[in-house]
Amino acid sequence: MERKHSFIAVDIQNDFASEGGQWYTPKPAVDFMKKVLFPYLREKGIKINEIISDYRQPRPGDRGDGCHPGEWGYESLVPDDIRKSQWIKCMNSPIWTRDNIGDANREPGLPHPDPNGFGQWLEENVGSPEKTTPVLIGLTADCCVLSTGQELNWRGYYPLILREAVDHASGKIEDRDKVLDNPVSNWAKTVDWEELKQEL
């Protein structure tokens, strides 16, 4: 059976992707997504499922504090008109959530894993492993995109990572390509834009 492609964007939020963001470095993938990918998907009527982060403290094991709901750094760069659904995580792996996640008016709870909740979101929005090839885009190839690719692989998916639409935390092309070659290749296949367009 031929699988349909389903896009999943990871952490394309101002704190990571925009100048002035807490963890910002210049990243070529952001320009590619804004100028090439998003307009193409809009024209073709293809929607994006999105994973974003609520990185408020407390987060034992990670001292970072950012992506606060209700603030500029939390806001996504994915245009509203091409977003299909949104899952909010609070650690690198998408299965980690918390009470009051994404709620700017309530104190966040401690991170805890919710593998069943994430699985239900995937099934309802992305599709089943038997019918869907997830295409990962976003930030970063060495951290949250990698964690998402691992989780999808372990659930039976065969994820693709769109090379031009991901970056390393450093923003350097050579660092991106190095991690896409290894270790990312253990869990996901990298595809170039011209190649992917032939499959969409």
From TrEMBL:
Q: Which SUPFAM superfamilies does UniProt cross-reference here?
A: Isochorismatase-like hydrolases
Query: What's the protein name?
Result: Uncharacterized protein
Q: Which organism is it from?
A: Candidatus Curtissbacteria bacterium RIFCSPHIGHO2_01_FULL_41_13
